[in-house]
Structure formats: structure tokens, C-alpha cells
Design brief:
Elements: E1 4-8, H1 13-24, E2 28-33, H2 36-43, E3 50-54, H3 60-74, E4 79-82, H4 97-125, E5 128-133, H5 146-166, E6 171-178, H6 185-194, H7 204-217, H8 224-236, E7 243-246, H9 251-259, H10 262-272
Parallel strand pairs: 1-2, 1-4, 2-3, 4-5, 5-6, 6-7
Helix pairs in contact: 1-8, 3-4, 4-5, 6-7
The structure holds NADP nicotinamide-adenine-dinucleotide phosphate (NAP).
């Protein structure tokens, strides 16, 4: 195959696994992220078809430089995996608007900027693949994950619109919705919640319960390679799905979210994540 593919956020977790899996499948993979030392270590795992590349998806200049290098070395970019992501945690009331902006700069505008950079040449070539990494949080918004869940809801909308816009040009677009996956992402989310615990924080008792529930999620989650295999499927299938859920065990929860009234979903979810057990202030 040897088609050039850019994977963003490949210095860790899902992106790292996807870069290796795609290289082993025969793609010419450019594994992009800001931490170059981690990318160097990854290169050896890609059977010669994997190069690290510096990219900050929140910086259009950096995106342009990375894409320019790929095009110069390997030709027009065939595929992009928009995987780079961060999670800003905390109650909506307490998370600063600067943090909200940081969340959207990476998870949403980063995807927009990468797509804007690669689409003209994909349209010219009349072929290409874009795989966006969303989340189950793009359909079910947990408390204290409002910024992250909103960004992933935005990724759902932009992926649907993009798929419909570029289909006439032969470009295929898929969304992957992982549930809990065992990567360093979970620890960062746990640390993010700490800021909202303790005296003076009005949501602290609920945040503490949520944090305890959340702590169990990632270690028991899917392996990054499970998501990577789905990325390979989306990149190689003749007719890739519009969306994939990994692991499939999340499908019933997503269906219930669509079918049940919000009041019931709210109560069920509060019971599951322990938030229901905290007394309301008198
Ligand atoms: N883990 C889960 O349970 C889970 C569940 C659902 C969805 N997801 C989604 O899956 C994606 C990957 O998550 P993960 O679990 O693999 O997390 P991770 O291990 O923390 O990896 C995140 C990656 O994103 C990169 N990144 C962050 N900001 C970036 C920026 N501005 N420019 C370029 N790269 C950037 C990081 O690299 P550098 O810091 O080196 O730049 C890192 O390689 C995210 O979009 C996340 O929302 C994860």
C-alpha cells in the first residue's frame, strides 16, 4: 500500500497503537505529537514504515510544516487519524473560560485545522480517508466532564457534516467512539479533578464521588490496540462505517440514552457514578 497517513497524538495511548498498527498494515505512517522523544522511541516498532513528526494541532503553522514535510517525502496525504486530545475536567461553573478554550482548541479546532490543510489535495486526488476519534462522551455527557464532553459532541457534528460534504469527492470519513480505554488519559483526568476538591469548592462532595467511580474506569478499560484495530478497519475497508463504538459493550448504553427520557437517564447515570449518594445541601 505505502500510502501516507498522518496520525495525530501518536506519542501515547490510542494514537501510538494506531500508528504502529497502520505501519504494520503497510501504510507509510507519520506519527505526530509535541513530545518528539517519545516519537523517536516509537519509530523502531513500525517495521520501517513509521516516522515521528512534530505537530501541535493547536498551531496552524505547525500543522502546515508537518503536512509539507509528509508531502515532500511521501507524496499527497492519503489518510488522517485525528486522534490528538486532552480532557479538561471540573464543574462547568468552576472551569475557567481559558481552560474551555484550551479544550476546544485541541479537540475541535485542531481537527478542523488539520482537515482544512489536507482536504484540497484529497479532493484533487479524488480519494482519501479521515478517521476522527470521538468518544462515548460525545453522546453521554458525564458531570464534571462538561468541557470534554461538549468538545466530543462537537466532533460528532463536525464529522457528520464533513462526511456528507466530501463524499462526492471520493473521501471517506469515519468516527470512532471509544469508551474507557486504558491509557495515561485517565490519570490526567483524575489529576484534573483534584483542583475542585476541598473547602471552598461547592461541588466537592459530588466531584469526590465521581472521581472514585472514574478511577476504576480506565484501568479496566479496553486496550489501545482494540481501538487501533478499528482505526485500521476504518482506513482499509471498501465501505468504512460512519461510526464505530469500541468496545461494543457500550452500545446498549448509547441506545438507552437515545430511547429513554432524560430524567430516567440522569437518575440511572447518577446511581452508576455514585453522585446520587451525596445529600443535597439543606
Ligand atoms: N482513553 C480513553 O479512555 C478515551 C476514551 C474515549 C476517547 N478517547 C480519545 O482518544 C484520543 C487519544 O486519547 P488517549 O487515551 O490515547 O490519550 P493519551 O494517552 O493522553 O494521548 C493523547 C495524545 O494527544 C497528544 N496531544 C495532546 N495535545 C496535542 C496537541 N495540541 N497537538 C498534538 N498532539 C497533542 C499527546 O501528545 P503530546 O502531548 O506529545 O503532544 C498524546 O500523544 C483523544 O482524542 C481522547 O479524547 C480516549
Amino acid at each position: 500500500m505505502y500510502k501516507p497517513v498522518l496520525v495525530t497524538g501518536a506519542s501515547s495511548g490510542i494514537g501510538e497503537a494506531a500508528a504502529v498498527a497502520l505501519a504494520r498494515k503497510g501504510f507509510r505512517v507519520y506519527a505526530g505529537a509535541r513530545r518528539l522523544d517519545r516519537l523517536k522511541a516509537l519509530e523502531g516498532l513500525g517495521q520501517g514504515g513509521l516516522s515521528g513528526i512534530e505537530i501541535d494541532v493547536a498551531d496552524e503553522g505547525s500543522i502546515d510544516r508537518a503536512c509539507y514535510r509528509i508531502e515532500a517525502e511521501a507524496g499527497p496525504i492519503y489518510g488522517v487519524v485525528n486522534n490528538a486530545g486532552i480532557s479538561v475536567m471540573g464543574p462547568i461553573e468552576e472551569v475557567s473560560t481559558n481552560e474551555w478554550r484550551r479544550q476546544f482548541e485541541t479537540n475541535v479546532f485542531g481537527i478542523v485545522a488539520v482537515c482544512q490543510r489536507v482536504l484540497p489535495r484529497m479532493r484533487e486526488a479524488k480519494l482519501g480517508r479521515i478517521v476522527n476519534i470521538g468518544s462515548v462522551s460525545g453522546r453521554i455527557a458525564a458531570p464534571f466532564q462538561g468541557a470534554y464532553a461538549s468538545s466530543k459532541h462537537a466532533v460528532e457534528g463536525l464529522t457528520d457534516a464533513l462526511r456528507r460534504e466530501v463524499e462526492p469527492f471520493g473521501i471517506k470519513v469515519s468516527l470512532i467512539r471509544p469508551g474507557f480505554v486504558n491509557t495515561p488519559f485517565g490519570e490526567q483526568e483524575q489529576e484534573g479533578l483534584d483542583e475542585f476538591l476541598g473547602d471552598g469548592h461547592p461541588y466537592a462532595p459530588w466531584v469526590a464521588r465521581f472521581k472514585a467511580w472514574h478511577a476504576k474506569g480506565h484501568p479496566k478499560g479496553a486496550s489501545p490496540m482494540d481501538v487501533a484495530e478499528t482505526v485500521v478497519a476504518a482506513m482499509t475497508a471498501d465501505r468504512p462505517h460512519s461510526r464505530y463504538v469500541v468496545p461494543a459493550a457500550y452500545l446498549p448504553a448509547l441506545m438507552m440514552r437515545n430511547l429513554l427520557p432524560s430524567a430516567i437517564v440522569d437518575r440511572l447515570f447518577a446511581r452508576i457514578n455514585g453522585v446520587a449518594g451525596v445529600r443535597r445541601p439543606s
